[in-house]
Design a protein that fits this description.
The protein is mainly α. Helices cover 72% and strands 0% of the residues. The chain is globular, with a radius of gyration of 10 Å.
Length: 61
């Protein structure tokens, strides 16, 4: 799955992600074009997960 596909899927599931990880805010889950990696970095800080783990979790939803 490439970054564009991840971004598209992310738009569909970010609400579920915020429900699962209560510390995650709207600011953490939004991103401008080309800032997907930055968003993943924010999520890493909030969840304690590695970037690849987060990408895998997004792909599985």
């Amino acid at each position: 799955m490439n970054s564009d596909q991840l971004e598209g899927k992310w738009k569909q599931i970010k609400g579920k992600f915020k429900q699962k990880y209560g510390d995650v805010t709207d600011n953490d889950t939004t991103f401008a074009e080309g800032k997907f990696d930055e968003m993943l970095g924010r999520l890493q800080e909030k969840t304690g997960k590695k970037k690849e783990e987060l990408k895998r979790e997004i792909e599985e939803w």
